[in-house]
Amino acid sequence: MTSILVICTGNICRSPIAEGLLRDALQRRFAQAAPEVSSAGTSGLEGSGAMPESVQAAAELGVDISGHVARRLTAATADPPDLLLCMASEHREMLANGSDRDDRVFTLKELVRIRNARVTDCGY
Predict the structure, then answer these.
(1) 14 given a catalytic annotation
(2) CATH of the domain at 86
(3) Residue 72: closest CA among 91, 44, 49
């Protein structure tokens, strides 16, 4: 099964929201065939819940992340996913850094630019 790992620093603010929104969108579009989505933090506050403000922001967008439990990014969590989606360039630089992961590590902005370029190339 295809898997996506969303990465930020603490895994209590940005990445839990992105994980929840992405999981929800993919499940609505692909149902049972949706990729697995998870998140981790480069300095993850292991075992912490998402910040209340993050839970509220996600809820306002129709996604419940109240059960989120933070985890720290490790070599083991970084190697299996098909796509590593970073919230900031420093996360991408840390993960790619000439490794065999280079072709599957993107910032959210890079992924949006790639998608928009492909749509434009198709004439949409």
Answers:
(1) yes
(2) 3.40.50.2300
(3) 44
Catalytic residue selected from 29, 100, 121, 122:
121
pTM of the model: 0.86
Domain residue limits at 100 = 3-121
The mean of the pLDDT values for the chain is: 88
Model confidence at 60, pLDDT cuts 50, 70, 90, reads: very high
Per residue in 16-53, pLDDT tens? 999 999 999 999 999 999 999 999 999 978 999 999 99
> Considering 14, 23, 71, 92, which one is annotated as catalytic?
14
Whether 72 is catalytic is no
Q: Is 8 a catalytic residue?
A: yes
Number of domains, the chain: 1
Catalytic-labelled residue, pool 8, 13, 24, 92: 8
